[in-house]
């Protein structure tokens, strides 16, 4: 988190102390001393603190802000449970968090060389892939990023499995993998007709969502109900429609143009990326796309048959709107 966020969260959490580089050395040293002596239970700190920590009984590491890389995430998680006792690592996540992280990266390096920015964006997208993963053991996924081997069976055997393995242990049905190549091509073909559009609104178009008054009015005003991908996701939940659009961004089929608002927030407007353009120009029909270039997504399984795009397996969906689609998810695992 930033220094400002560090102070803000400290004020929200009772009994916590802040730790960041804008504080005087004497204050930081005293804060660390009190924490190591167990006089303070909670610290709200920037990544500067983790470099000096040597405390065995850390029970929780909570990431309030999206890490910039999996390496950074792994280093910070490693602070928990060094005494071998059960400890927890929690990451609070929303897809839009990465827009602010990108802005912070660009502010830190005002004119970065293209290769440096591409490397940092690639690292951040690896974090997004980790967070958006809904089907594979989180520990296995993280280990694979560092060329290490770990199995879901090992995770299940621990005292605190990751959230995905825990859900399977509780009897929750795993999500199924579907081919969304046809839907993706329809999105790509529509991009020239969309201007200054966020992917959350594109997800509403994809689902054919006409129950939200403001969304319906916007669609009517701009004839977005006639777009090729309108309603193709009508058999999906709001969450899965959002995840589909997010996947197209994470996998570089679409890209987001960052714009700062007068309230100092960051908005990302979707545009067709080179990868999406190449796929559209190369394969006009989804039937021609080879397996290694097709686009797949794990989604909730179905109960009621809905319409879907040509060539796509019919999906059953939950017709209830998930109003928490854009809220931050809690991704956690125990150590």
From TrEMBL:
It catalyses: Couples ATP hydrolysis with the unwinding of duplex DNA by translocating in the 3'-5' direction. Keywords: DNA-binding, Isomerase, Nucleus. InterPro entries: Helicase_C-like, P-loop_NTPase, RecQ_Zn-bd, RQC_domain, WH-like_DNA-bd_sf. Its EC number is 5.6.2.4. It is an enzyme of class 5 (isomerase). Residues 326-335 have a biased composition (Basic residues). Residues 298-335 are annotated as: Disordered. Residues 1-125 form the Helicase C-terminal domain. One of its GO terms (molecular function) is DNA binding. GO terms for cellular component: chromosome; cytoplasm; nucleus. PROSITE patterns: HELICASE_CTER. It holds the Pfam family RQC. Belongs to the helicase family. RecQ subfamily. This is DNA 3'-5' helicase. It comes from Meloidogyne incognita.
